[in-house]
Protein 1
Amino acid sequence: MKVLIQLVTRIEATLAFAAAIILAAVMVIVSADVAMRYVFNQPFGWSYDLISLYLTLALFYFCLSRAFDQHAHVGVDILHYYVSRKTRLVFNAITCVASAPVFALIALECGKRAAATFAHHDVLAGAIAWPTWAFIVLAPIGAGLLTVRLLLNAVAYLVPLFGGPETIPLPALARSDEGIEQAAFE
Amino acid sequence: MILGLVLVTLFAFLAIGTPVGFAMAISGAVGLYLGFGPHVLMGVLETAPISAIGSYELITIPMFLLMAEMVLLSGIADDLFKTAAAWMGRIPGGLGIATTLAGAGFGAICGTSTASAATLSATSLPSMIRQGYEPKMAAGIVAISGTLAMLLPTSVALIIFALLAEVNVAKLLMSGIVPAFVVTLTIIATILFLVWRDPSRAPVAQAVSFREKLVLLRGVGPMVVLFAVVTISIFTGLATPTEASAVGAAGGFALAIWRARPTLGQLRHSFERAALGSCMIAMILMGASVFGYFFTLSHVTQDLIGWVGALHVSRWVIIVIILAMYIVLGSFMDQVAILVLTVPIVLPLVKSLGFDPIWFGIVKIVTAEVGMITPPIGLNCFIVARYSGRPVTDVFQGTMPHFVAHLFAIAIMVAFPEIVLWLPSLMMH
């Protein structure tokens, strides 16, 4: 269990690093595009599709699971102040168990769609024939990894209820010192 | 029946702390499955995860978040208060006014109010308390000044509203400037009123030489230039908001390299934080998209509009009720979450009553920001309490005069929509 969590964490960290590089690439491409338009009157013809399809989706799906692990997804935790730690573990386990099938279905359906477009050699209409599968496949990668993370976390939250060790800490409450430290610079 | 079940599911998941985007995706999926069958659900889950995210305009959000990260990394934001204090310190309540101006300046670069409140807490609050300011008053000023961030052109909330409401992003970003000015004046007027009632609350600061003032002004100059470049390029149409945000991020990056000489590790950390913040927002938009399919197929919005139309109540009563609801929501929910949960339902209703969507977006955001300082759980007050070491009740007491003053400011914006709509009406495109 611990090894699995470490493996998933490492994959998430690698993908998040890739997302950081993608973010830098978007900044450079869009700024350069503006400069090319005004200085040389020759804007990039390829940047719009590359960014709106590939880079935006990669940025999102590469961070999706990492953001969950780091508790970066915003939620309402008012009830958590009034319940015991055990109840909080149950709440978090329910979140993971209920979310996992939705993201598994997203991974499955988008995976099937990516496979079909790959088999048909589908491309986007336009000056550059961008392959369709190459951006659709980003969804099953991100949603699939999140599904694994959700299932692992569900088990990790349930284990302490039966006397086992707490391998994944509960998210910090927004109005606690730790939560404020996090929220303040997000 | 199914609608009721879906709403109960949504609120149950929100109540147990499920991330907002996840809760919307789960309840939307449940509704689609129960109401329209597995084929519709599969169809939505095959397309929404791509279509909701694959948008060029969406890149504006990560770029503005990156710009804020880079400016924070450069350390230039810390000088904002010092500069404002040097220029304003000699007038009654001057340090408080300087905090407000620093809040506006910081908000111009960093579009989130929690980060703004935290930064002001760390910089301006200790100075005010050292100067002999009444701690409650000082904490109240910091908490309220943080809320200015959501109105200025780098505001993430404004971009999300524009995407949800399908209004022109550039016009919406510009429409927040005059209201931000009104809100700034409201805070300053409240400070002056409080000091007039009891001058001992805010002693005058020590004089600073004119030469020193100029040196400080030159220090924050690059940040002012960065904001001006972004805003003017959007206003004049020289660049789209997406392009302006990327140029702003590149400018912030250059500023960080020039002033702070960060390590590769620090840069990586800042880029990853901006990426994670963007992912959080995109996840909410994706969840809202799945939920939105259920709402559209169920005709909920049209039914609601029909029901309200049959009530024969003045449209002003309805808008006041809606705004009151936003104050309550703002006191315990994140601005982005409020937007995605309510805009798809409330905006068509507001439009059907004859109100302008851009005007509504601005008034809604100001109102929900007031919620962030509303007792007993307004988040900005907790942030200020944590950083100032004051009891949170003190901070809430300090924000009360501003809370009341803001209600007047909102009333003015509701009564005179031109305050919001004048600047975007001057745009050429």
Protein 2
Amino acid sequence: MAIATPPTPAAARRMDRLEVMWQSRPGVLGWLTTTDHKRIGLLYFWTTLVLFGAGGIEAMVMRTQLIQPNNDLVSPGTYDELFTLHGLTMIFFFIIPMTTGAFGNYLIPLMIGARDMAFPRMNALSYWIFLGSAIFLYTSLALGMAPNAGWFDYVPLASKQYTPGHNIDFYALAIIFNSIASTLTAAQFIVTILKSRAPGMSFNRMPLFCFAFLAASFGLLFALPPLSADAIFLFLDRNVGTHFFDPSHGGAALLWQHLFWIFGHPEVYILIVPAFGIATSIIPAFTQRRLVAFPLVAIAELLVVFIGFGVWAHHMFATGMSTTALVFFAGATSMVVIPSTIQVFAWCMSFVLGVARFKTPLLFIAGFIFMFVAGGLTGIMFIAIPFDQQVTDTYFIIAHFHYIIFGAAVFPIFGGMYYWFPKVTGKLYFERPGQISFWLLFVGTNLLFFPMHIVGLLGMTRRIYTYPSNLGWTSYNVIETIGGYITLVGILVLFGNLVWSYLRGLPAGPDPWHGPTLEWTTSSPPPEYDFAVIPKVTSAYPNWDVEDREEDRRKLAGGVLVLDEGHEQVEVTPVDGWLSRVVEMPHDSPWPVLLALCLSLVFVMLLLQHFAIAGLMGILCLLTLLGWHSKEPEAA
Amino acid sequence: MRRLELLQWSGLLVGALVWAAAHVIGFGTTEARCNAASPTFGIDFRLWEGLITGFAGLVALGAALAASAVLVSTRDVSYEDEPPIGRIRFFAIAALIANVLFVMMIVLYAVGSIGNTPCVQA
Amino acid sequence: MLIASEATLFGAFIGTYFYFRFRAPQWPPDGIPEPRVVVPLILLAVLLAGSIPMHLASQAASAGRVGAARLFVLAALALQAGYFAWAVHDFSAQLQMFDITRDAYSSIYYVLLGAALAHVALGILFDLWLLGKLVRGLTTYRLHATQAIAFYWHAVNVIALVVTLTLLTAAIG
């Protein structure tokens, strides 16, 4: 309930008890052993920002290298490492952990009226494994052996015969390592969204943000294993001598591509669907209106990921597969567009029918819709197999996916940072610099990526470290590089604004936007226990249900569903959200960081080909798990 | 209510599952027909694809009809109403949209796999 | 959820098996014997039989009969450990006949079988841990653990069934 009216003495006593029950250990040890979803979300946030910086530097070096023909700022070998690391970092170490790890972790319990995730220690484990995998990958750069065969690392280039160094072994192991973190996160989100909602929050009364994260989580759960299988096969081929990808012994090079894209295509939907969730949270707040066509948007978010599992070979239209094989993928690709289109119409209609206040978050969403539609239009063009065969591996493709990824994933992330900034920090951001940062980014990214369409059609292929001067590509590259630098300035203004706002911003209060969802009913920042009373929910826009919030105040005063006897949370039935029981939650724990450390050692030993020691480290992991499960929760 | 629940869940899940199966089995059939081991399998390609897409198409259509039946039965209910009836209508709306897409895709598979000459490189 | 993830991993392995199969004029390739049918099926039956005592253990625990639950887990463990010992012996014997590095068939064969055996080994460790907990009595936590581990075994058994049948397709035709 909104903390507008002061609580009664009885209510205040209960809140004090909750404060004691849920407080974290102080200092660095508190952060190392935390299981609080908000702290874990913040850890993810800062870590992914550092990695975003790394990916951004990689991009700027590439753009600077390409500003003029026959440039020699970096060598071809270094350029290979740059584009590979840029792709890997932005996808696996920025967008996924920022949307799921940072936004998802911080906001999902708050949106569903829960005190924490369903498995708080596993949540912490996901973060520490993620950190381990990031350090693992970037160690390769420090050692001068970063992966260098592209982020999709096709064989036979990636095989031992053509890339004998450890570069690709770092790639294969980092991928598997990172996927463990994401798989645990996905399982966590699904169980939390299904079982930890506030009573009354049935599926038809769940915020669209949660539908989006449910879809992305199911996507991750089913998409990551094929990638892991691929990486396992590659590691075995390179280090043990198996023949998965070796045609001379019955293997198939194309197998890599199939398994990769069975992961890779759902992955790109996983990148943008959480961002759709962010957009569908921001739009109602800044139009003060329920989103148009709520059930259609909800199913669209699930459908785009589900159908997205069936389109993978549209990345392989130029590989020589037969037409009768490819029609399955062209057919599915043509239909996968429709759920996205439904969402775009719903968003636009919500703008039109509501009273739109174009504050910075909504500006970013408007920019996102523009760029997503542009990228989507070029995407539809690839359904035509002949056209795709012409532009595959050219800058046209790079233009398409950057419009989608930067436009449809990064813009909502930036919008979301502004939108939830008051909730997380308790301060308001400064509006004018916010708007300036948006326009710099919008102009910069369009200057950066639009000319790529043209230069791609003129024949400029991907992954070339330089180009000759007589092909008419120079002026486009110059414009793109200038656009890149403008984008960089926009990013610096954005983060500078957020830092300055943190230091000097005005107090925000609990609900500066009159937002629709439950996080706006708590204080800013929220208390450790999130909600003093488990909220009553009768719609998908609970903060706008005044009577329910009054009921919560009465419940708090009367001690109903306050759960201040222990470290407790409710569990509900998955579909209709009926209360089923109260569960005891774990406190801060050292086991997650210890297990992540053991797992890191397994991967290091595998890289060094000390397989027996890797096995011993594996046993150490199992012993750590034993310790983790040694203490049982008190009976509720 | 039980019948309504059954229709709602069938509408939501059956179409999705049958599309996924048609996709995997349909694509798998092309792989079996058009590769080195194919002579040992002796597949009548058009017959197989016709059967797979025909069966899947009918089942997906059935799922769409189930969803429609639920929508007709709940026409006085809003998807925002309290569960289970509100949730049932909500899922039925979702199921109808989804199944239209699944049927469309299966039709495209049928046209593409039967209409084209098998095993010709794209 | 994690079981769904593992099942998908096996799905990717099985897809790979058939991908190779469709491209190979001769399967198994020259020099590799066709898989035996009877022994693997008997082994599979032994493993699958373990689902029955695990299910009964789960039911006994729900009814509060911890002694019965312990006995059923022990019975399942005996079947599963028996399967595992025999299967590992078989695995190493086959490695002597044709090595994993021989060709694509052997690569996917040993990865499929090895992955299935690894999951059985993990399940055996779960059983031992569970017995250790149940020796000290029944709590809600231990009840849930019993149910979860029983479910894990049912899933592993389904996976083992699919893997065995897939590998046996090389004996057809």
Protein 3
Amino acid sequence: MSAPVTVGDGAFEPSIVAFVCNWCTYTGADLAGTSRILMADNVRIIRLPCTGRIDTLFILKAFERGADGVIVSGCHPADCHYTAGNYHARRRFAIFRELMNFVGIDPRRVTFSWVSASEGGKWAEVVNGTTEQVRQLGPFAMYPEA
Amino acid sequence: MSTKRILSRANLDALIRDLIAAGTVVVAPTHSSGQERTGVTYGQVQSPDEVLLDGPQPIRPLKEVVFPPTEALFRWRQEKSAVKIEEVPTGFKETVVIGARPCDAAGLEVVDCVMGWDFRDELWFGRRQATTVLAMACTTCDESCFCTAVGLSPTSTRGADWFLTPVDGGFEVDVLTPKGEAVLERYKARCPETEGPAPSRTAGLEQQVRANLDVRPDRIRGWLETHFDDPLWKRVALRCHGCGACAFVCPSCHCFDIVDEPDGADSGTRRRNWDSCQTALFTLHGSGHNPRKDQTARFRQRIMHKFSIYPARFGEVLCTGCGRCVRVCAAGMDLVSILAEIDRAAQGGAET
Amino acid sequence: MQELRELARKLLQEKQVSAILGYEHGRMGTRPAFVTDVADCERLVFDHRCVQNLAAYLSPRRTHVAALGRLAVVVKSCDARAVAGLIRESQIKREDVVLIGVRCGGVVRDPADARPLSADNVAPRCVDCEKREPTLADHLVGEPKPAPAGSGSRDARLSEIEAMSPDERLTLWMELLAPCTRCHACRQVCPMCFCERCIAEKTQPTWIETSPHARGNLAWHLTRALHLAGRCVDCGECERACPAEIPLGLLNRKVARVVADRYGYVVADDPSKPTPIGTYQLDDAQEFIQ
């Protein structure tokens, strides 16, 4: 597994993976960019058609492969491009989050959000907030070497 | 070249301490940790207090010591068009097992046949070489034990480098192999030679085990060779869940799956993991065809491999009668009853 | 028991079914029994040692069982919940199976336990059981039985774990899952794990590593617990079948609690009751979402 990323002065920089839906959050993130809003550059975005497509295994896999934090974001309820994808996702995420917490994966490492296509500012907040939170928590050292 | 010696419990404890101090990995039956687990297992111990020599049979087989449930075979890394293979460190730590059950020790020898057959499994033999087995005669048995039915017994010394027999005051020690001699040389002071026999505490156990199952493996093999399509298989396999728990607790099951686990686009580890013929996936072809398409075929395969095919190839029954499969089976398959039924049928007795 | 045997004989004689799936006393305790002959119905028993959940055998994946034809299955109320689940999820049709409901006073933990039922050996789930006879049944046999003696909430251990810090929980679970050898007995005995191709068997990509190391084991057990959310019937077979003594029930009970607290859903033997994961409400709680 990759060692924690550090920069110049040896400070820990978290690696964060974001699973976002194409229609709302991805477009919102794009807006944040074109609006030249300053954001932490720790986040790698993975675009899915819908939060309904986001299997909880994606979150686990991200942690397995070295992510220190994960963002999951999509359309607000009632705005899903596929009508109900985010409703199904909402239940799934709610349960998995509590299950993860139960086995000791700190829920503060995973941020869930609804960010619409026009909420560039909100996306920046989610990115910056999550990055800072995970920076405080430190590297994710969950699995001993397999 | 066996020499009888007496090892008092105090000296055994001291021997264990000596071994640990010398950096040897000491494995023995020990209590599982945590409130959720009550079974005894073979585990690495850090002190003689953790060793349980008169408890029930460990719920996991000794084969774990020489054949871990998962082990890395090599790591790869791709650099441009070249692939570098890095052998996983293959130095094996010197290990001494104290208190191995005869059925577990014998299992190691039985599996040696296939591991050294058409391809010498260096990982298996490397660990075998580094492991000294101090087996101990059983002082307890239950209704699942049937070692006597497969040519073994509660006092069988197969696979043992030392054999310890509980006596008043400690253990009578039989040093049986050069490896055992080597250990004795280093710790001779702990096992003084002694005059005169001491009473044995294991009398009567063999009879108890024989009462569980009294069959002849050669008769069973004969029946298996001629009853591939017998209705017995369909009937008996109905309740089998195909879970494979039996294979995973068996001292002689040794099948494994090889997987590649990438940890990036250009590097990863190849591993081998325990596997079981009881799963549908075991014989599933890439085409989608499965020669063992249901549990009837898979369960039949298990029995035939153990009691007919392996004996035909290597002259050994692939079973040591430890009884774990009987104890662990959630569906109550009960190999003892099945073998009894086959043996009866082989004698032309009750219809199958 | 005679009532059960007579009913079984009748069902076979009238060719309503080809086989009865019930329990018998084996050498090592009570176990599932498949009876196809009227004369063999004498083997059928029902008592406090009938632990196994027979609904597991109804999955169409078990072609060797399906080949027997139409079955009559003996079901306790917990088992009937699993049958309801299979019907609900279109694995079997209600009319394809005859359900012989039994009135149950609780069962022991270990089918080989020959002692009478008492607070010492009763299965913990039976102490909490609210309905000791199934609603989903074609026939109902046996005398009504009192609730089994026993005390202590099963969820005491859950609360203990919840009170730990995240690091303590992680250390605990890594230790609890370490002896897992990935035999998948938990999956095989579960009536609700009927997928033709389990996600743990998928490659390209491999979502759940099959190796019994820390990564693979955690991914497997978390995924199975999640896939059973709202579907696990709390029969306890997974935990009983596990050769490594892993307290799987803790994960399933936790998820069941989350589902009950958040969505007011408790598994029942009513096939028409929709499962909480396949459904949603517009106003589902989302306090954890920014």
